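For practice. Any example?
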Amino acid sequence: MLKHMNFTELDWQNGDLEIPLNSVTVARLLVSTFEQNNYNIPYDIPSQAQYWVNYYKSPNNTATAQNFIDNANKMTKCKPPGMDLIFLVDASDSIGSEDYQRARDFIISVINSSKSDSSNRVGVVRFSNYATLVLNLTYDLDAAMDIVQNMFYDDGMTNIQAALDMANNMFTLDGRIEVPQVALLITDGIPNEGTPTGPAADRLKSLGVNLFTIGVGDQVTADLILWASSPNCMFYYSLDGYTQLATVFPELLNSQICDVSVVASDNQTYVPGTVDKDQALYYQIPASVTDGLTLKLDIHEGAATVFASLTARHPSLSDHDFSANATTENLGQIFISPDQLQQASDNSKFFVSDMVALGKADVTVYTSVVGISDSTTNFTLHYEKNDTEVTTVVPTTKAPTTMAPTTEAPTTIAPTTEAPTTIAPMTEAPTTMTPTTERSSEVSKTVEPSSTASTPTPAPTSTPTTPTTPTLATTTTSSSPKLLMPSFLAIFVSVLLFSLN
């Protein structure tokens, strides 16, 4: 049906796009074409509200821009999963002191918003002729903001490779496996110092790091889109200038960071975590088409649902291929067969995850754990080759916990529609660097070099207890087509449709 739909024949000015049958699919497709007509969608909500009035709202709709803003404020806000975030900030001579201060303001704004979750850590690397360690990963976000405010401006060349490799060293030495690892690269130019940048970006992504790349201005390298994690509609951004970076971009970035995944290691078989009620934590699990994959959600305290998908990056109750419920008495289990994984591999020509592109897996199984207990849920998510489901059922006398339904029948998995991202081959060995230590005349804190692991303040989160003996297996499958689009477009459309009521 969609292939034969003619937007020009829709009477959208008189409400055709507000008909429930058409509103979601047609609205998203239409909005995705706006930029082709130079109707660039703004980043901030007030500007999006006026954009909706100018280009989308039908004449018979009496809602105003303020209604759009009010509805946006009513929407459920994301709950950050906790993360390790490293900023890689360009300090080369093309920036200028005023724009460099705007870059500082941007970093401070993001760090300040990260204070909402006490399990967040941040680190900072400055680069010009070489990379300089400004701040090792730390829980002390107030001190981090002070250090960034006094961060030196180098006025040198642009060595992006050195910054990426320094972040690699920091995550290798001190990164946590139970939270997403995120690197945020900000630059306004083209690398003109150091070794090739593409292999350094691949090394960082191969480690399991979510790499955001932000190009500022019109002189920035086009390769940023190749260096970013996949899909680049979520991880790559092109901004007009540093004023936009410092003002409207932080809010969008924070919404994107909420959806980053823990990229599970192919050298490990489990990852611990904690999740609150209705909070979702996302994972990318490596899988082999030869062996199949078993997921086991072992609950130490609370209750949760595990969703898995072979096509949707953020599986949920409304969009998943497999699901299982889990409590302290019942182990949540999902087995995905080699045939199902092979089918997903055959259908994934339009979108290839970093894990697959970099040779870390045949298929990526996108997984989420959603808390359903009133109290915090403490769990361990196991991922194992082959079918290792536990089939023994032990009766329990406790009342059942209300959980998401798991009655869907399996259907054919549909391919996604996003074009593949070309990633440079990993042909270069990691570069060994001896970072310098950032010191400020106004900040007395000493920063350790990245050649030794930092000693962070203990996280306020609890450590999962020894996994319990599983007693009950639960697994179901379902599937539905997916429509990928830039995340800020999805945010805009969500508010747009919410405004129609």
User: Anything to note?
Assistant: The chain has a mean pLDDT of 77. Residues 44 and 248 are 5 Å apart (CA to CA). The domain at 84-260 is CATH 3.40.50.410 (Rossmann fold). Residues 97-114 form the longest helix (18 residues).
